[in-house]
Protein backbone atom coordinates (compact mmCIF):
# COMPACT_ATOMS: atom_id res chain seq x y z
CA UNK A 1 0.00 0.00 0.00
CA UNK A 2 1.13 3.54 -0.55
CA UNK A 3 -0.51 5.46 2.28
CA UNK A 4 0.74 8.48 4.18
CA UNK A 5 3.14 6.53 6.41
CA UNK A 6 4.53 4.49 3.50
CA UNK A 7 5.17 7.77 1.64
CA UNK A 8 6.88 9.15 4.75
CA UNK A 9 9.12 6.06 4.91
CA UNK A 10 10.04 6.60 1.25
CA UNK A 11 10.82 10.28 1.88
CA UNK A 12 13.12 9.26 4.72
CA UNK A 13 14.75 6.51 2.65
CA UNK A 14 13.64 3.88 5.17
CA UNK A 15 13.04 0.29 4.12
CA UNK A 16 11.24 -2.00 6.54
CA UNK A 17 12.31 -5.62 6.93
CA UNK A 18 9.91 -8.49 6.42
CA UNK A 19 8.02 -9.40 9.59
CA UNK A 20 9.96 -12.23 11.20
CA UNK A 21 8.34 -15.43 12.40
CA UNK A 22 8.46 -15.99 16.18
CA UNK A 23 11.55 -17.81 17.43
CA UNK A 24 9.82 -19.43 20.43
CA UNK A 25 6.34 -20.13 21.88
CA UNK A 26 4.66 -16.74 21.35
CA UNK A 27 2.94 -14.73 18.63
CA UNK A 28 4.55 -11.66 17.03
CA UNK A 29 1.63 -9.40 17.95
CA UNK A 30 -1.79 -9.33 19.58
CA UNK A 31 -4.62 -6.85 19.42
CA UNK A 32 -7.12 -5.97 22.11
CA UNK A 33 -9.67 -3.39 21.02
CA UNK A 34 -7.72 -0.55 19.43
CA UNK A 35 -4.44 -1.49 21.09
CA UNK A 36 -1.76 -3.39 19.20
CA UNK A 37 0.97 -5.09 21.24
CA UNK A 38 4.08 -6.07 19.29
CA UNK A 39 6.40 -8.63 20.87
CA UNK A 40 10.01 -7.74 21.53
CA UNK A 41 12.01 -7.42 18.33
CA UNK A 42 15.72 -8.12 18.19
CA UNK A 43 18.52 -6.98 15.91
CA UNK A 44 17.65 -9.06 12.85
CA UNK A 45 17.51 -7.82 9.27
CA UNK A 46 15.46 -10.19 7.07
CA UNK A 47 16.72 -13.25 8.92
CA UNK A 48 20.33 -12.13 9.50
CA UNK A 49 21.22 -11.51 13.15
CA UNK A 50 23.24 -8.33 13.65
CA UNK A 51 24.81 -6.52 16.61
CA UNK A 52 25.81 -9.65 18.51
CA UNK A 53 27.40 -8.76 21.84
CA UNK A 54 27.19 -6.20 24.62
CA UNK A 55 26.81 -2.45 24.38
CA UNK A 56 29.71 -0.85 26.23
CA UNK A 57 31.98 -3.77 25.36
CA UNK A 58 31.68 -4.90 21.73
CA UNK A 59 29.55 -1.88 20.76
CA UNK A 60 29.65 1.85 21.44
CA UNK A 61 26.59 3.80 22.55
CA UNK A 62 26.17 5.05 18.97
CA UNK A 63 26.27 1.49 17.63
CA UNK A 64 23.77 0.53 20.33
CA UNK A 65 21.49 3.33 19.07
CA UNK A 66 21.75 1.84 15.57
CA UNK A 67 20.84 -1.57 17.02
CA UNK A 68 17.79 -0.06 18.76
CA UNK A 69 16.77 1.59 15.49
CA UNK A 70 16.97 -1.80 13.77
CA UNK A 71 14.70 -3.25 16.46
CA UNK A 72 12.25 -0.39 15.84
CA UNK A 73 12.29 -1.11 12.10
CA UNK A 74 11.33 -4.68 12.95
CA UNK A 75 8.56 -3.37 15.23
CA UNK A 76 7.16 -1.41 12.30
CA UNK A 77 7.47 -4.45 10.03
CA UNK A 78 5.40 -6.47 12.52
CA UNK A 79 2.92 -3.60 12.95
CA UNK A 80 2.51 -3.39 9.18
CA UNK A 81 1.75 -7.12 9.06
CA UNK A 82 -0.72 -6.75 11.93
CA UNK A 83 -2.46 -3.90 10.09
CA UNK A 84 -2.84 -5.82 6.85
CA UNK A 85 -0.10 -3.77 5.21
CA UNK A 86 -1.61 -0.38 6.13
CA UNK A 87 0.57 1.55 8.60
CA UNK A 88 -1.89 4.44 8.37
CA UNK A 89 -4.01 2.41 10.81
CA UNK A 90 -1.52 3.38 13.54
CA UNK A 91 -2.97 6.43 15.26
CA UNK A 92 -0.25 6.72 17.89
CA UNK A 93 2.81 5.06 19.37
CA UNK A 94 1.84 4.52 23.00
CA UNK A 95 4.88 2.87 24.57
CA UNK A 96 8.26 1.33 23.79
CA UNK A 97 10.17 -0.95 26.10
CA UNK A 98 13.89 -1.36 25.53
CA UNK A 99 16.37 -3.90 26.84
CA UNK A 100 20.11 -3.35 26.43
CA UNK A 101 22.56 -6.24 26.68
CA UNK A 102 25.27 -4.62 28.80
CA UNK A 103 27.64 -5.25 31.67
CA UNK A 104 27.13 -3.96 35.22
CA UNK A 105 29.28 -0.88 34.62
CA UNK A 106 27.16 0.39 31.72
CA UNK A 107 24.64 3.07 32.65
CA UNK A 108 23.56 4.76 29.39
CA UNK A 109 20.61 2.53 28.51
CA UNK A 110 18.30 5.48 27.71
CA UNK A 111 20.80 6.86 25.17
CA UNK A 112 20.81 3.49 23.40
CA UNK A 113 17.03 3.11 23.27
CA UNK A 114 16.77 6.65 21.89
CA UNK A 115 17.58 5.01 18.54
CA UNK A 116 14.13 3.37 18.60
CA UNK A 117 12.34 6.40 20.01
CA UNK A 118 13.80 8.77 17.45
CA UNK A 119 12.71 6.51 14.59
CA UNK A 120 9.11 6.62 15.82
CA UNK A 121 9.24 10.42 15.91
CA UNK A 122 10.73 10.56 12.40
CA UNK A 123 8.04 8.30 10.98
CA UNK A 124 4.92 9.34 12.91
CA UNK A 125 5.74 12.91 13.92
CA UNK A 126 3.88 14.04 17.04
CA UNK A 127 1.90 10.76 17.06
CA UNK A 128 5.27 9.03 17.60
CA UNK A 129 5.72 10.54 21.10
CA UNK A 130 5.44 7.71 23.58
CA UNK A 131 6.00 6.46 27.11
CA UNK A 132 9.06 4.26 27.46
CA UNK A 133 11.36 2.20 29.60
CA UNK A 134 15.03 1.44 28.97
CA UNK A 135 16.77 -1.14 31.14
CA UNK A 136 19.94 -3.16 31.12
CA UNK A 137 20.08 -6.94 30.97
CA UNK A 138 22.99 -9.27 31.62
CA UNK A 139 22.04 -11.16 28.45
CA UNK A 140 19.44 -11.17 25.69
CA UNK A 141 18.25 -13.88 23.28
CA UNK A 142 20.97 -15.01 20.85
CA UNK A 143 23.32 -12.54 22.61
CA UNK A 144 21.91 -9.63 20.59
CA UNK A 145 22.74 -6.14 21.82
CA UNK A 146 19.18 -4.76 22.04
CA UNK A 147 15.54 -5.84 22.13
CA UNK A 148 12.56 -3.44 21.85
CA UNK A 149 8.83 -4.04 22.26
CA UNK A 150 6.03 -1.68 21.28
CA UNK A 151 2.43 -0.77 22.00
CA UNK A 152 0.41 1.14 19.39
CA UNK A 153 -3.04 2.69 19.26
CA UNK A 154 -4.96 1.79 16.12
CA UNK A 155 -7.42 4.09 14.37
From TrEMBL:
Q: Which domain of life is it from?
A: Bacteria
Annotated Gene3D superfamilies: RutC-like
Q: Report the protein name in the record.
A: RidA family protein
**Organism, per UniProt?**
Azospirillum oleiclasticum
List, for all copies, the residue spans of the domain called Endoribonuclease L-PSP/chorismate mutase-like: 6-146
The record's InterPro entries line, in alphabetical order, gives: Endoribo_LPSP/chorism_mut-like, RutC-like_sf
Short name of one Pfam family: YjgF_endoribonc
Query: Which SUPFAM superfamilies does this UniProt record tie to the protein?
Result: YjgF-like
Amino acid sequence: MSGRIERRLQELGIELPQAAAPLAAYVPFTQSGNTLYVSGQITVWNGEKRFIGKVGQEFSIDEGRQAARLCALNLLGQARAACGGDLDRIARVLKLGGFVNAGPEFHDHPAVINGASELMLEVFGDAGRHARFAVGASSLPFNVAVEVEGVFELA
